[in-house]
Structures are given as structure tokens and as C-alpha cells.
Design brief:
The chain has two helices and 19 strands. The protein is mainly β. It has an 18-stranded antiparallel β-barrel.
Length: about 400
């Protein structure tokens, strides 16, 4: 049910900005108005041996990607205002119909009114795509597969208000978010997946003296689809109640763990509701200053892009970053995703292996070369596939 590379695209654009935020690596253009600009450019060449994630009739292509990005940042006392903008263009050498152009525009304000009152507001627009054979066209067969990617708009707006001085143990945060996803092509099929989400919630934090926070979090999500699915209404209400702990970086570790109960109820009584345990955990361990391990796992119910009532998705992963010298490092990673569909007979297990070699050629240029090896197995053979991507990228700043 996952839309695979469209999320990757968003992360690449955001990472192109985030990777240059550190002053020791990025060149900053400072203006008299007090606004700093941090430009970046990512360019890459990759070979994909299964561009449509098919079990048969696999297609392959070399792909050139170019992703320029810029961040504008202004500091006003303790307040921080940022605007991120970026695009990514993908050119398929052997399948020009798969070419894409994604775009991201994001604005954020972090405002501290006084010692006990602060808020964070964020608005985002993302124009993205789903590779053929993924997302709304994850059919598992060639019939009906479009000849080009599905494209969509995402609008998000929201934030939180927090009360409580950071020097005191207790804090309360109230949050809200609205997001809308609307497909822009193949509307005779994609119209049934256009939806709006409204999210409201509250979190109570209790901070200990050991840079650790214990929190109780409640989130309510109302999901409404623009057009009723031929298989029945998909509108739903989801509630999440979780207890967790998070701790700031020490000399060796940082992370967060939350576990609780999730309940998903459909307006359509013919669809099967979900209730059960949900969790999310992330742990970073740095046994050495030049070596870092990231561990993560999670479980939640999600709306499917194609068939079924909901998908219970469970993820596990580990990543190891190691700097062998000031100029050379490696990254090894493994992800395992288990998708259990309800309302449709399908269970998938996806294993993804990642390796990359990182060369800091110049202060303003880092080269990365590596591979992403993925295999998906399903109780329905038509959803089985292997996909191998080999890449080399250049990340450039001023």
C-alpha cells in the first residue's frame, strides 16, 4: 500500500536543505535584512532494473535526477522563521513517459512569546508523483497500468501551542493539523483516493532532571474522502492514545519510545474497524564519536491505496553510519515492512537492503555511491517483485 519513491523524493528535497544547515558544511548568503539564504544542489545518476515494481515484464532504465533547493532563515531573538523551497526533476533515459517534476514549498515559524508560552506554525505544499506500479496503481498486474506516473497535490497547515516553562517539570501541548491530498491525473480512477484529514490532539510532558521526558499523548484524526469509493464509503475516525518517553542526546544515546492503543472506526458499517496496540520507537547509539547506529520500529493501521479496508503495517529497521576518515564514510541499512490487509486477501513482506559509500571530495561537495536492494513477497504471487537501484549522487552547497 505504500507509495514508495514519492516519499523518497520528498525526503531528498528536504535533506538537500537539511544537510546544508550546519554552518561547518554549508555556505550561507547573509543579507542586510537579516535573512540568511542556504542554497543546495543534489544531482544523481541511477540504474533501476524494475521501474514499475512488476512481477513480470520488468522494465529498466537509467535515470538522471537534479534537485536544487534553498532555505531562507531569519532569527528574531528566540524566534526562528524559515522558508524551504525545492524541486526535483527525474529524466528516464529509456522511458520518457516516466519523467517527473516534483516541487516543495514549506514555511515555518517557531515563536516564543515568553518563558511559559510558545507556538510553532507550519504550512506546506508538495506536488509529487507515484511511480508506475505503486500507490493507487499497485495492482500487481500489467492490465490497466498507466503509461506515466500518477501525480498529486498535498496541502498541509497546522501547528501547536505549548504552555509551561522549559525549566519546570510539566508542560502541555495542544496541536492541530489539516492536510489534503488530491490527484491531478487519471481522475476516473484516482478521484476515489482524494481525501482530507483533520487532526487534533494534546500531549502532557513531565521532564526529569536527566534530560528525559515522560509524556501522555492523545490524537484524533477525521478522514473524509471527496468521492465515495465504488466498494463503499471509506470515511473514518481514528484515535490514538500513547504513553512514551524521550531523551535528549547524551554522550552515547538519544531516542524516543511510545506505545499505546489505536482505534479506527469507519462510517460504513460494512467495513471492518480496527483496534489494537500501536507503537513507534527510535534509538540512536553512538559507541564512538565517528560511528552511529539507528534502530527503529513501528506499528499502525493505514488507509490502503488500492484494495481493502485498512492495512496494519509493522516496520523494523537498523542503519549504521561509520566515518573511516575525515573524507570517507559508509552507510549500511536494513528495513523490513510487513503489511497485513483487512477486507482484501493480501499479506506482503518487503525487505530492503541499503549500502552507500560517502566521499567528501570538497568542503562543498559530497559524493555518494551505493545500492538499494528490495524484494517484496506476498501471499498473492502477482504482488511479488524484486527491485534493485544502483546510484551515484553529488550533494553540493556554497
Amino acid at each position: 500500500m505504500r507509495t514508495k519513491l514519492n516519499i523518497f523524493t520528498l525526503l531528498v528535497i528536504s535533506a538537500g536543505i537539511a544537510n546544508v544547515s550546519a554552518e561547518e558544511k554549508a555556505g550561507v548568503i547573509t543579507t542586510e535584512s537579516g535573512v540568511d539564504f542556504i542554497p543546495a544542489l543534489n544531482a544523481g545518476l541511477k540504474y533501476d532494473d524494475n521501474i514499475a515494481s512488476r512481477s513480470t515484464n520488468e522494465e529498466e532504465s537509467w535515470i538522471l535526477t537534479v534537485a536544487p533547493a534553498v532555505q531562507a532563515k531569519m532569527l528574531d531573538g528566540k524566534n526562528i522563521y524559515t522558508i524551504d523551497a525545492g524541486i526535483e526533476y527525474g529524466d528516464y533515459f529509456d522511458s520518457s513517459d516516466d519523467n517527473y517534476l516534483d516541487a516543495l514549498l514549506k514555511a515555518r515559524a517557531q515563536v516564543e512569546l515568553n518563558q511559559s508560552n510558545r507556538f510553532n506554525l507550519e504550512a506546506k505544499y508538495f506536488y509529487g508523483h507515484e511511480d508506475r506500479g505503486t500507490g493507487v496503481f499497485d495492482f500487481g498486474f500489467d492490465d490497466g497500468l498507466p503509461t506515466e506516473p500518477a501525480t498529486y497535490d498535498i496541502f498541509q497547515g497546522g501547528g501547536y501551542y505549548e504552555y509551561g516553562a522549559k525549566s519546570t517539570p510539566a508542560r502541555v501541548r495542544i496541536n492541530g493539523l489539516y492536510d489534503s491530498k488530491e490527484y491531478t491525473n487519471f481522475k476516473e480512477l484516482t478521484q476515489f483516493r482524494n481525501k482530507d484529514n483533520v487532526k487534533l490532539g494534546a500531549t502532557v510532558f513531565y521532564d526529569t532532571r536527566a534530560a528525559t521526558s515522560i509524556f501522555l499523548d492523545y490524537q484524533y484524526i477525521q478522514t473524509a474522502y471527496d468521492v465515495m469509493d465504488p466498494g463503499g464509503d471509506r470515511d473514518s475516525d481514528t484515535q490514538n492514545l500513547q504513553l512514551g518517553v524521550e531523551w535528549e542526546a547524551t554522550s552515547t544515546t538519544e531516542g524516543s519510545i511510545r506505545i499505546g492503543y489505536q482505534k479506527k472506526a469507519f462510517d460504513n458499517q460494512e467495513r471492518e474497524d480496527f483496534s489494537g496496540v500501536a507503537w513507534d520507537a527510535k534509538l540512536t547509539w553512538k559507541p564512538l564519536t565517528y560511528s552511529q547506529f539507528d534502530f527503529y520500529t513501528g506499528r499502525s493501521s493505514e488507509d490502503p491505496d488500492t484494495f481493502g479496508d485498512y492495512v496494519r503495517e509493522t516496520t523494523y529497521g537498523v542503519k549504521w553510519n561509520h566515518d573511516w576518515s575525515d573524507l570517507f564514510g559508509t552507510t549500511l541499512g536494513y528495513d523490513r515492512i510487513q503489511d497485513d490487509y483487512t477486507g482484501f486477501e493480501r499479506e506482503d513482506t518487503t525487505n530492503v537492503y541499503r549500502v552507500s559509500f560517502n566521499f567528501e571530495v570538497l568542503r562543498w561537495m559530497t559524493l555518494r555511491a551505493g545500492a538499494d536492494i528490495a524484494d517484496n513477497t506476498s501471499i498473492q504471487e502477482r504482488f511479488d517483485y524484486d527491485r534493485n537501484i544502483y546510484f551515484i549522487t553529488a550533494e553540493m552547497t556554497l
